[in-house]
């Protein structure tokens, strides 16, 4: 069995041109984290029949992650793949799964990081997809004084500001008083925005 980043990267290299071989290799990756990412590459680039099989397997494989953090976070890859492949219904179903798991992730800072990645994955799918993720972050991952959570709030505020400046300001207002909040408020006032990450560049 394969269980390395090398195998995942091999799948990424093959997904566009040899999707059946890419799927075969992805199925041999033992670690659910890397296997789910690899399967998402197949979802993104394979013909519809192979992509549908890979999507079903990606969702199942994600459930084998070692904890709620991994099982939630790794769904970001198939979620983005489904969106970019035009399967918004599947993306929404996986987001529901991910949000339910997010509340169980520990510690809170890791929950915030997972939520941030899920929001970036969902963002190109439109407000109907990303807004529930934002709500889950605000509810289940309050920033408190943890610098990692504060960094997540600041970075996703830049992304949200591309579509809803007021929602970005409300998010930043949840940060505790201090340097991170001051910096984030100044950035929004200066019009700083950002695009979500590319998962399949």
SSE diagram, text form:
Blueprint: H1 5-14, H2 19-27, H3 32-45, H4 48-62, H5 68-73, H6 76-84, H7 88-102, H8 108-122, H9 127-140, H10 147-160, H11 165-173, H12 179-189
Helix pairs in contact: 1-2, 1-3, 2-3, 3-4, 3-6, 6-7, 6-8, 7-8, 7-9, 8-9, 8-10, 10-11, 10-12, 11-12
Describe the structure.
- The chain has twelve helices and no strands.
- It is elongated and about 50 Å long.
- The protein has 201 residues and is mostly helical.
- The two termini are 26 Å apart.
- The chain has two domains: 1-66; 67-201.
Tag the structure with descriptive keywords.
12 helices, 201 residues, single chain, 2 domains, elongated, mainly alpha
Terminal-residue CA separation? 26 Å
Using only C-alpha atoms, the radius of gyration works out to 17 Å
User: What best-fitting shape do the alpha-carbon axes yield?
Assistant: elongated
Residue-averaged pLDDT: 96
Structural class: mainly alpha
Proportion of helical residues: over 70%
Give me the count of strands: 0
Main sheet specs = none
How large is the count of helical segments? 12
Query: How many domains make up the 3D coordinates?
Result: 2
Beta strand %: under 5%
Poorly predicted ranges (pLDDT <50, ≥5 residues)?
none
Could you give the order of the helices and strands?
Answer: HHHHHHHHHHHH
């Amino acid at each position: 069995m394969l269980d390395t980043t090398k195998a995942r990267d091999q799948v990424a290299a093959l997904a566009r041109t040899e999707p059946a071989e890419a799927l075969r290799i992805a199925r041999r990756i033992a670690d659910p984290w890397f296997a789910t990412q690899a399967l998402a590459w197949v979802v993104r680039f394979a013909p519809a029949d192979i992509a549908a099989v890979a999507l079903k397997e990606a969702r199942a494989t994600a459930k084998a992650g070692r904890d709620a953090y991994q099982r939630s976070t790794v769904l970001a890859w198939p979620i983005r793949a489904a969106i970019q492949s035009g399967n918004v219904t599947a993306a929404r179903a996986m987001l529901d799964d991910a949000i339910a798991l997010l509340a169980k992730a520990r510690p809170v800072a890791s929950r915030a990081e997972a939520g941030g990645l899920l929001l970036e994955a969902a963002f190109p799918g439109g407000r109907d997809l990303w807004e529930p993720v934002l709500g889950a972050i605000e509810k289940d991952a309050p920033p408190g004084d943890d610098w990692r959570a504060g960094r997540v709030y600041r970075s996703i505020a830049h992304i949200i500001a591309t579509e809803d400046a007021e929602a970005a300001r409300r998010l930043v207002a949840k940060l505790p008083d201090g340097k991170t909040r001051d910096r984030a408020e100044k950035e929004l006032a200066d019009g700083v925005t950002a695009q979500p990450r590319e998962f399949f560049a």
